[in-house]
Amino acid sequence: MYTLLRDLRRLRRQLALPPADRPASLAIRHVDAGSCNGCEHELTMTAGPHYDMQRYGLGIVASPRHADVLLVTGTVTTRMLEPLLVAYHAMPEPRTVAALGNCALGRDVLGSEQEFAGAVTEILPVDLMIPGCPPSPEDIARALRTLIDRGPPRGPDTGE
Ligand code: SF4
């Protein structure tokens, strides 16, 4: 068995394949926590045939239970706080959170304060920030692609 694994590693190196512990694809669950839909428009373009983010191994999935990445747009409204937390806790570990757009990052947010629960960065452990109002499809695809390049996300919090 050991010899087989060693030969497999050698073959991966010869073929210049990425290390086995680097994910080849990521499943993304998108949650609109209170955006104006501008970020969604650009995200839809990113997933469309022109930018085709699936060719980079990035796919949108319908359920957080199947997702590696929680991609959040908009500042979090009080009504969306609970659904956002439910989606986050439904994801399997290890999980990654990405905040897409200036609203998610808590920048330049318009509206009445009592309806905002806060920026995504104040509510969840954000691993990837994608600034812009809205960010372009190129910026979104490039930023999400870095999640694959960085390797596996961190494991569950152990409190250490
Ligand atoms: S960052 Fe800009 S485009 Fe995105 S939700 Fe906020 S206002 Fe809309």
Q: Mind explaining what this structure looks like?
A:
- This protein has 160 residues and is α/β, with parallel strands linked by helices.
- The chain has a single domain (21-149), classed as Rossmann fold.
- The chain has helices at residues 2-14, 38-47, 78-90, 120-123, 137-149; strands spanning 26-32, 58-60, 69-73, 76-77, 96-100, 116-118, 128-130.
- The strands form two sheets. Strands 2-1-3-5-7 form a five-stranded parallel sheet. A two-stranded antiparallel sheet has the order 4-6.
- Helix 2 (38-47) crosses helix 5.
- The longest helix has 13 residues, at 2-14.
- It is elongated.
- The model has no long low-confidence stretch (mean pLDDT 88).
- Residues 35-36, 38-39, 73-74, 101-103, 133-134 line the site of iron/sulfur cluster (SF4).
What is this entry, summarized?
33% of the residues lie in helices and 18% in strands. It is of the alpha/beta class. Helix 2 (38-47) packs across helix 5 (137-149).
